[in-house]
Amino acid sequence: MSTPVATAGEGAPAPRRAVVTGTSSGIGAAIAERLLTDGWRVLGLDRTPPVLSGRGFEAATLDLTDPPALAACLEPIHDASAMVHAAGFMRTAPLGALDAAAAAAMWAVHVDVAARLADTLAPRLPAGGRILLIGSRTASGAAGRGAYAATKAALVGMARSWALELAARGITVNVIAPGATETPMLRDPARAGVPPRLPPIGRFVRPAEVAALAAFLLSPDAAAITGQQILICGGASL
Q1: Above 70 in pLDDT, residue 93?
Q2: Element (H or E) spanning 100, and its range?
Q3: For residue 233, how many C-alpha atoms fall within 13 Å in the half-sphere facing its CB?
Q4: pTM of the prediction?
């Protein structure tokens, strides 16, 4: 009896799949690109049409803050091994001019969406799964950015809580907290009142540098890192 000859890729494990929000620009796009380069399959969730394409990338266009739409999008996903929440935006205002609607919108995107994603996907993640949230160095406080900072600080509290819940399953939960990063948000007119400061390294953080850290935290090599907020800020926190 002859032995079948394996074809290329036959018998090899399927590529890992990551659900990544905010892949239409900035840090989210850089993370998705890095994961695709590393052999992952990526499902990008965005409110705007995708800018990425190619083998391994799928896109879903939806309002992440619409609970029924997000639930419907996530319902069929049972094979993800990682979740990355990178979608976000910044609105600034000093005391005396706070914008309650803007604050609520940031909370909805940064915190509520993260909670809904994790609540749905965490029970389905396999041993060794990963949850990664993109926070901000301003979580520790920044003048004129109180509402934004509050949402990013909330991510740290949730991540540490979830890390405790999921540690026994070998699932890690971490926050990357970038400083000023060269993305469209950096040039958003809505933050004109609090322009970014150049960090000590003499340039802004690059999205690819955040993506490199994300790739490591999603890898098996980072299995002992959980419940942490890791800053990448070019020395701005010194």
Answers
A1: yes
A2: helix 100-107
A3: 18
A4: 0.90
Active site residue 148: yes
Q: Look at the block and give the residue holding tokens 């005391």.
A: 95
Burial of 65 (0-12, 13-18, 19+ CB in 10 A): middle
**Mode of pairing for the β-strands spanning 130-134 and 41-46:** unpaired
Half-sphere exposure of 152 (CA within 13 A, CB side): 28
pLDDT score recorded for residue 1: 31
Which positions ≥6 away from 164 have C-beta within 8 Å?
227
Per-residue pLDDT tens over the stretch 194-211 = 677 888 889 899 999 999
136: closest CA among 191, 63, 192, 61?
Answer: 191
Q: Which of 135, 100, 93, 128 shows the shortest CA–CA distance to 114? A: 135
**pLDDT given at position 181:** 82
Q: Which residue has the higher pLDDT, 15 or 131?
A: 131
Task: Please tell me the distance from the alpha carbon of residue 105 to that of residue 216, in angstroms, as a whole number.
Answer: 31
Q: Enter the DSSP assignment of 227.
A: S
Rg of the chain in Å (alpha carbons)? 18
Partners of 231 in the β-ladder: 177
Q: What is the pLDDT of residue 13?
A: 64
Please say whether the beta carbons of 67 and 61 come within 8 A: no
Residue 191 — pLDDT band, cuts 50, 70, 90? low
Q: Which two tokens stand for residue 128?
A: 């060794």
Residue 68 tokens read as 């029924």
Nearest to 182 by CA among 141, 139, 237, 233: 233
Distance between CA atoms of 162 and 179, rounded to whole angstroms? 24
| Catalytic annotation, pick one of 88, 132, 145, 148 | 148
